[in-house]
Amino acid sequence: MYRLGVNFDLTYITAGIVDETGKILIKESIPTLKYRKFDDIIKDMAHLCIRIVNKYGLDMDKDIELIGIGCYGSIDWHTGVMIYSSYFGFRNAPIADEMKKYVKIPVICDNDANCYALAESRIGATKGLKNTIIITIGTAISGGIIIDNNIYHGMAYGAGEFGHHVIIFGGEQCECGRKGCWAAYASTNALVRDSRIMAVRHPESMLFKMVNGDIRLMSFRTPFEAAKKGDIYAKEIIEAYTKYVALGLINVVNVLQPEAIAIGGKIRKIGQEFINDVNKIVDEKTFGQYEDDKRTKVLMCDLDYDAVIIGATMLKH
Amino acid sequence: MYRLGVNFDLTYITAGIVDETGKILIKESIPTLKYRKFDDIIKDMAHLCIRIVNKYGLDMDKDIELIGIGCYGSIDWHTGVMIYSSYFGFRNAPIADEMKKYVKIPVICDNDANCYALAESRIGATKGLKNTIIITIGTAISGGIIIDNNIYHGMAYGAGEFGHHVIIFGGEQCECGRKGCWAAYASTNALVRDSRIMAVRHPESMLFKMVNGDIRLMSFRTPFEAAKKGDIYAKEIIEAYTKYVALGLINVVNVLQPEAIAIGGKIRKIGQEFINDVNKIVDEKTFGQYEDDKRTKVLMCDLDYDAVIIGATMLKH
What we know:
2 copies of one chain form a homodimer. By secondary structure, chain A is an alpha/beta fold. In chain A, helix 6 packs antiparallel against helix 9 and helix 8 (about 220-230) packs across helix 9. Chain A has 11 helices and 13 strands. Chain A folds into 2 domains: about 1-120 and about 305-310, Nucleotidyltransferase, domain 5, CATH 3.30.420; about 125-300, ATPase, nucleotide binding domain (Nucleotidyltransferase, domain 5, 2-Layer Sandwich), CATH 3.30.420. A 5-stranded mixed beta sheet of chain A has the order 3-2-1-4-8. Chain A has a 5-stranded mixed beta sheet with strand order 11-10-9-12-13. Chain A has a 3-stranded antiparallel beta sheet with strand order 5-6-7. At the A-B interface, helix 9 of A face strand 10 and helix 9 of B.
């Protein structure tokens, strides 16, 4: 038997057929076009699922055990209802029920970061560990919590909003409305913001020259590349950014002391060296002087964003 | 059958006989005298236990099912070893084994805040809820996490160090060595510190007059009392303090979204009104617009510090 995993994201809906080892056999995407009616989005999602099953020469009813959907928002996994998603503007949207209009097999839903965390804990970086966390660092910061080998949801299925814990009271404005959230310092957006400011202040910097003075071209990679080439301004930015990332992780460790935190999202592309630098600070600054084998490890996620598709097929039903 | 609960604190060791409903029938304390040898402390603890059992006319072997000990530090509850306690200076101290030299019944140990949380979740403010947290706010800030009706320990049994999550990067020095921890703003020690500074700056304030100009007499109650009497300086202190307390709680809610957080410790003495003020901010500022019945409630703990004794008798063995 195979399972079908869906990554229901803001820009794309991607569906994949996943085998029992967690390998994606075939996948395909359609644009989400999120401002459409909910019904229309789900209709296209269902048709995408049906199409790739046919394309791979399988029969939905006979060969596919279930469809798992990882969604950008808070999901009541018991009912498959998206309770709340600020980005979609949905409230109490019955995703599973709507899908069932098109398919007869079980449909289960969960939050995308939860699916990511589940996939990592089954076949990825945190495999074999009992209590783990994944944190995706990209334009935003999200997270998934695995406790006792299962997803920890929180009372309204919204646990794991690590990006929205305040690290600087009254600090930088965050998209969520509060000020000083971790995401406002440790997301790649925050890194780009700080790099742009630094570049403009120092036109002599490599940071400025690498984007030919057009700071709109600044990416989260630029300061890392400039720092590697010796630019002191980029080094200053990266040093501060590394501290911000570590600070939030230390907060998480002091509260939850998981066996490991695996970092996913865009920042993965920067590579293991950055994770090592972060890990060093976390090790030094975490509360309590525990022995090496009793300290939370900061790891890099093994899987890329397709982990959402894989994890969705690992949801319990 | 009865159980014997012990609160192994820095200043006192208190033992109590607890019945099946969680009621303390008799209790007695001895000074900890923490700078003594570990063996001597435990010897006195065992004798205290034996003494109160005899005093209550019971037989240790026949009438007492187990001894549960709530300890100030990180405890490996599987083995009853205190892995680490910065305040005692212990490392890998075999509390249960040492106790077993004096008694034949089972001895189980856990962290004191965990015992507190367990007692509240069984017979106190968070009774009937599945995922809850208690946070004690006093000279320090500690916490216990209940997930799925059981204590969540963390990998080195040190989870729940809520007081040592940073809310102001580079802020006030914390006793733990880092700067800007929540405890450095929201503990009663922090409140007293800020009240003293304010009093000295404003000798015309009620805050100053209430301690007759001797700021050493400032207690955590003074600013609350002065604010109630209309002192604008005390009001400013209390307003800021309320925000700090709420800020840390919001961070916890955004990460863990428990059904409730119950506040214990010295701050309980200030009363429900303070908890209500905190709750209002938490409700307003928590991430995500959830409906009323899907929001974490901030409650006051039902039980006082004896909850540690009660909770210790509820530990699993």
